Amino acid sequence: MKKLFKPALAVATVLAVACGGNNSQTTTDHSKHDHTSHDHAATTGIPAGEPTTTSTEAASDAVVIESDDQMKFNKSEIKVKAGKNVTITLKHVGKMAKEVMGNNLVILKPGTDIPAFGVEANKAKDTDYIPASLASSVIGHSKVIGGGEQDSFEVTLEAGKYDFICSFPGHLAIMKGVIIAE
Ligand SMILES: [Cu+2]
Fold it and tell me: If you count Cβ atoms within 10 Å of the first and of the last residue's Cβ in the chain, which end, N or C, has fewer?
């Protein structure tokens, strides 16, 4: 209730001022104000408190992303806590073997040329499609996994936006997204 009180008061004050009347009194005198004519002040006061709750849930230090046999991640945007050790888990919820429908999750440094990375990744089967020549572009990555498997890795990201892809050949055009560290 404490969190809701402030926005509700702010809204009530704004509406009271908008109503005209004695402006110098309304800020301190809102408790005596006729509430029947300001029913909407109470309802708008509740949503005003919501963003606080939403933002604490948004950035996490442990995220799970699913991939499937349709060459898709289930999320295109992930929010994590900046400057904190974050665990990223990739879960392949499909059934196909990793040789056919392998998926991984690779977080790339900002500014990485993704198509060029993909060209090199295609040649890097032995290293889970992480090209040694472009290792410096990789902030973190999972193993290549098949249906029913999962793999986790840890990263610490400075505040910012990072691309993530699946670097299995032919997948990165569709299997991609953004990680926002905040
Ligand atoms: Cu993939």
Answer: N
